[in-house]
Write a structure and sequence with these properties.
The complex is a heterodimer of chains A (140) and B (298).
Chain A (H helix, E strand, L loop, with lengths): L1 H10 L13 H14 L8 E2 L2 H8 L3 H13 L3 E4 L3 E4 L5 H24 L3 H19 L1
Helix pairs in contact in A: 1-3, 2-4, 2-5, 3-4
Chain B lengths: L3 E11 L4 E10 L3 E6 L5 H8 L7 E6 L2 E3 L3 H5 L2 E4 L11 H11 L5 H10 L13 H13 L5 E5 L7 H14 L6 E6 L2 H7 L2 E6 L2 E7 H7 L1 E7 L11 E6 L4 E5 L5 H8 L2 E8 L2 H17 L1
Classes of the chains: A mainly alpha (140), B alpha/beta (298).
Chain lengths: 140, 298
């Protein structure tokens, strides 16, 4: 028991739960697992800690980690097999899907800010186009 | 074993100045339950009944499948109990205590005890009277943990601990839960600890259970809505609102049954929703206590 604990603590000590972060703990766990997969730290098909192991390691309740895993599973990001534990979903398009979700989040924010500034959708779109053009130039 | 490690059904106990009233409680095996209540709310009485130290006037108590207090001797072989008022023998060393406990409990795990000594930064040759409060708490916890009990019952385990010791204790409690046959019940008025590690949460106030649920349910259902009323608008009446505060034009609602539909109902009635805030367990507990006490006094 004690060895398992130490082992996972070292392996995944980069997952951090913040008490001063206003968001619920399960959301913090979901986001950090998503990022880990998006940047390729956790590869498709890779086994990830069981719910209990992660709970022990993060010192948060089992039910909180269970909730994070259930929602990640519903989003198709991880797969949990009864008795076998959980792994990153083998879907190769996963990275793209995660970036897409990220993009949607940012676009929503852009739209919000645009509204605050009183920009029309057309003005907003042209600002986004300018930014995209700048990117293309920088990389060409 | 799966099922219930602790089961209270209609348990009552009357003292001259305090009544524990018709308490029912279920603690599934493999989970941690945090018992939250103000001082004098009934947490310790509940725990003492569970341990067979106090006998209930009415109701049934089963712990690890044993009926309490009748089968308490058998049950206690598998229960580790640490409370604030438990004293270790001051002139003796921690090693002496470990030897004593080992002679009574056959499941004593010496390698685990040694690991705990290191993790808790304790020295076995030190006499109890030379230990600080935090070291005494950790010593008592070590003596309970190394017996590898199936049920740990802890009365205020983190009270009076410094931040480092608190984290050490919380980490060790979570490590116990790595084994899904082990169960923990602990009482605390530190809601932060309870919020962090509990699966189940039970609020006790004035001798009654006012709420008992899994933690995610609590955190999901309670919300604070900050509103701004348009001129001439009236606050719509919503079901599930337990508290209305704030000033006239800027009311603040607290609900224990949040539903996103509430936001549109408010907006449609001219009460613009400025923010929907999640609440901490401490805020939920206080709001819960206030709303119950108000209902009682009406």
């Amino acid at each position: 028991m004690s060895t398992v604990y130490t082992q996972y603590r070292n392996m995944h000590s980069d997952i951090v739960i913040s008490q001063s972060d206003g968001r619920p703990m399960y959301l913090q766990i979901m986001e950090q697992i998503r990022q880990r997969i998006a940047v390729g730290d956790w590869l498709p098909g890779k086994e990830i800690p069981s719910i209990r192991e992660l709970a022990v390691m993060l010192r948060v309740s089992v039910i909180t980690v269970k909730r994070a895993y259930l929602e990640l599973e519903r989003d198709g990001i991880i797969v949990t097999q009864q008795g076998k534990g959980s792994m990153v979903a083998p879907d190769p398009g996963l990275g793209a899907k995660l970036y897409d979700q990220e993009l949607t989040k940012h676009i929503d924010r852009v739209a919000q800010l645009g509204e605050l500034l009183g920009l029309t959708p057309r003005e907003l779109a042209s600002r986004v186009r300018e930014a995209a053009d700048r990117m293309t130039k920088e990389y060409s | 074993m799966n099922g219930l490690s602790v089961h209270f059904e209609g348990v009552s106990k009357t003292y001259p100045h305090f009544t524990l009233d018709n308490l029912s409680l279920e603690l599934p095996t493999g989970t941690i339950m945090g018992l939250i209540g103000a001082n004098g709310a009934g947490k310790s009485t509940t725990i003492r009944i569970l341990m067979g130290l106090v006998h209930q006037d009415q109701g049934r108590v089963d712990v690890l499948g044993r009926e309490m207090p009748r089968e308490q001797a058998a049950a206690k072989l598998d229960i580790g109990y640490v409370s604030e008022d438990m004293r270790l023998y001051a002139p003796a060393t921690l090693a002496w205590h470990m030897k004593l406990i080992r002679s009574i409990y056959p499941r004593w795990d010496q390698p685990y005890a040694d690991t705990l000594l290191r993790r808790f930064d304790l020295k076995s040759h030190q006499k109890i009277k030379g230990l600080s409060h935090g070291q005494r708490v950790k010593a008592a916890l070590l003596l309970a943990l190394a017996r590898r009990p199936r049920l740990l019952v802890l009365d205020e385990p983190t009270t009076g601990l410094d931040p480092v010791a608190r984290q050490e204790v919380l980490a060790e409690l979570m490590a116990v839960l790595a084994d899904e046959d082990r169960t923990i019940l602990f009482s605390s008025h530190n809601t932060l600890d309870v919020e962090q590690i509990s699966d189940q949460i039970t609020f006790i106030d004035r001798g009654r259970i006012i709420a008992s649920d899994n933690k995610e349910m609590f955190l999901d259902r309670w919300r604070r809505l900050r509103l701004a009323l348009l001129p001439d608008a009236v606050l719509p009446s919503l079901s599930g609102v337990v508290e209305v505060g704030g000033s006239g034009r800027l009311p603040v609602l607290v609900t224990d049954r949040f539903d996103p539909a509430m936001v549109s109902v408010c907006n449609d009635a001219g009460a613009t929703v400025q923010a929907v805030d999640p609440m901490t367990l401490e805020e939920i507990f206080v709001a819960n206590v206030h709303s119950r006490r108000e209902k009682q006094s009406v």
